[in-house]
Amino acid sequence: METERPSPRYSGIDLWSPAEILDSMIEGQFAAVAAVHAARPALERAALAIEERLRAGGRLVYAGAGTSGRLAVQDGAELMPTFSWPAERLLLLMAGGDDALLRAVEGAEDTADEAAALIYQHRIGDKDALIAVAASGTTPFTLACLREAGARGALTVGIANNPDTPLLNEADHPVCLDTGAEPIAGSTRMKAGTAQRVALTLLSSLVMIRLGRVYEGLMVDVQPSNRKLVRRSEAILGQLTGHSREHVRDALRQAKGSVKLALLLLEGQSLGEAQGALAETGGDLRAAKTLLEGRRTQKKRA
């Protein structure tokens, strides 16, 4: 297994100068990103398949153990404040539960029965999409999540750093991030972890962009849950509409913090029209604007 293999490249690392150690590890980080770039076609296919399930009302599920699990959970958790992804349509399955997010839980990654039980408990099925992440590609908990979810009809995406492993071979959409040997043999928090983090960010961001949760490169589905995000919401609306901060704040109050809804209000739509258009288009702002423009044109012709 490549991620476990000691590499001659790093055999004397403990004797090197601090600068040499850092240079070698930075080199490894660049190699990790290159591995993600090589997997771009697989990431694209996986994202489009996930998009299809989510458009049909399915849930997005992340599964993993150890470092891979923490990275998966982090990516999933960030979808809620960044893209207003509904909590009820997100499942984060971590071997060892919440405790394992802060400290290693002995033997958690080997609990295949627990993984299968979680898939059954949450009734994961043919509307859902599961992303399973394991550097080794063999982690029992993660592999069991993927197998059980797949058996119940869910779309499965497997992300691993070792080629020709069960997680990749059994996934509907395998994503191999071939990062090779680590500077510290077996420490997959290094190159493998970086590649996983980048791949997960790209995958989920592409899905959210495709679902209309980004407009003109701006975070129009942001949840203004703190002062920084309130200011960001105001700045987005100011940039898109040119309205004063006072008008922007008034629109946000009417829209109860929804940037998309506030934008349509600032463009002259009534609250009911704006809400209806967003509901009809699944929250896709660009599609809602096109729909409203078409209706406006029809009224003029009539």
Labels describing this entry:
Helicase, Ruva Protein, domain 3; 302 residues; alpha/beta; 13 helices
Q: What best-fitting shape do the alpha-carbon axes yield?
A: globular
Number of domains: 2
CATH superfamily membership of the largest domain, which one? Glucose-6-phosphate isomerase like protein, domain 1
Widest beta sheet: strand line-up: 2-1-3-4-5
* The CATH architecture of the largest domain: 3-Layer(aba) Sandwich
Bin the strand percentage. 5-15%
Assembly state here? single chain
Largest sheet report: 5 strands, parallel
Number of helices: 13
Instruction: List low-pLDDT spans.
Output: none
Order of helices and strands: HHEHHEHEHEHEHHHHHH
- Kindly provide the radius of gyration, computed on alpha-carbon positions and rounded to a whole number of angstroms: 22 Å
Please state the structural category: alpha/beta
> What is the fold named in CATH at topology level of the largest domain?
Rossmann fold
